[in-house]
Specification:
With about 270 residues, the chain is an alpha+beta fold. About 35% of the residues lie in helices and about 25% in strands. The protein has an 8-stranded antiparallel β-sheet, with helices on one face. A 5-stranded antiparallel β-sheet has the order 1-10-11-12-13. A hairpin with a 2-residue loop joins β7 (about 150-155) and β8 (about 160-165). α4 crosses α5 (about 75-85) and α8 packs antiparallel against α9 (about 255-265). The chain is globular. The mean pLDDT is about 95.
Length: about 270
């Protein structure tokens, strides 16, 4: 497979447990988006294991589908974009500057998608993790859009779009324009994210699993369980408990988790 060649759509659909229609409609887009984020976790194991991140489509398919792993934004959204295009959606690949819970001005190191159907244009993003959307968002500036236990809105001014989460008190997730990006742009950004010492993906474990009823957000040894109005947090310090959480709740393969636990212990991080 190359970036423009077909992938094994049936195996991808089995991976996300999707059995619905495959026409390029808003409903199919929404159903695929939700199925993807529910079944493919957001995680950075390969960064911590020193394996490197490859963004060619065959490597992405082998990792996220065949090996039943997760990944971060470039991996998730590049694979999802290829799936959507194979079905017949029109997809534009974009880049964003993350602003969520930071005062620093960060580089544009997040990937998202603008997907067109006959009816409308949609923001699709299966690779933000944590507070990311579970379903696509309509490009309807200022309108609150409910997604299960959470609310989102898009705000636009002078061509700069902002994705926000909340209700009343809105928290900004990221900023972006509609300028299309090339794979080379993502390769450079991914290298920064996976190697720069100030990148949060290099500094410690990140693993998230999203669902309509809750979000599991593991950062280092801190586990947050977000159920909308109810948010709880606890530490997971015991290596056996951490391994069980990653396998049973996040959904990562046991062999990769075992290697990770050993690596973290060797570094004094677990």
């Amino acid at each position: 497979m190359t970036a423009a060649s077909p992938l094994d759509l049936d195996r991808y659909l089995q991976r996300i447990d999707y059995r619905g229609a495959l026409q390029p409609t808003p409903q199919v887009l929404a159903d695929l988006h939700l199925a993807h984020v529910r079944h493919i976790p957001f995680e950075n194991l390969d960064v911590l294991l020193g394996r490197g991140i490859r963004l060619d489509l065959p490597s992405l398919f082998d990792k996220l589908v065949t090996a039943r792993r997760g990944g971060y934004c470039f991996e998730q959204n590049l694979l999802f974009a290829a799936v959507l295009e194979q079905i017949g959606f029109r997809v534009r690949r974009l880049a964003a500057r993350v602003t969520y819970r930071t005062q620093r001005v960060l580089p544009r190191t997040h990937m998202l998608l603008r997907v067109e159907t006959d009816a409308a244009a949609w923001l699709a993003d299966v690779g933000f993790g944590a507070a990311g959307p579970l379903r696509p968002l309509a490009f309807a500036p200022g309108a609150a859009q409910a997604q299960y236990l959470w609310q989102y809105r898009l705000v636009e001014q002078d061509g700069l779009w902002r994705l926000q989460i909340g209700e009343g008190d809105w928290a900004e997730l990221y900023q972006f324009t509609l300028q299309e990006q090339a794979l080379a742009d993502y390769e450079m950004s991914s290298y920064y994210v996976s190697t720069h010492p100030e990148s949060r993906f290099v500094q410690g474990l990140i693993a998230h699993r999203l669902a309509p009823e809750r979000r599991l957000i593991l950062i280092g040894n801190e586990l947050t369980e977000d159920r909308g109005a109810q948010v709880g947090a606890r530490r997971v310090d015991d290596p056996a408990s951490l391994a069980a959480l990653l396998v049973d709740d996040i959904g990562l393969p046991a062999a990769d988790v075992a290697e990770l636990i050993d690596t973290l212990a060797a570094r004094g991080l677990a």
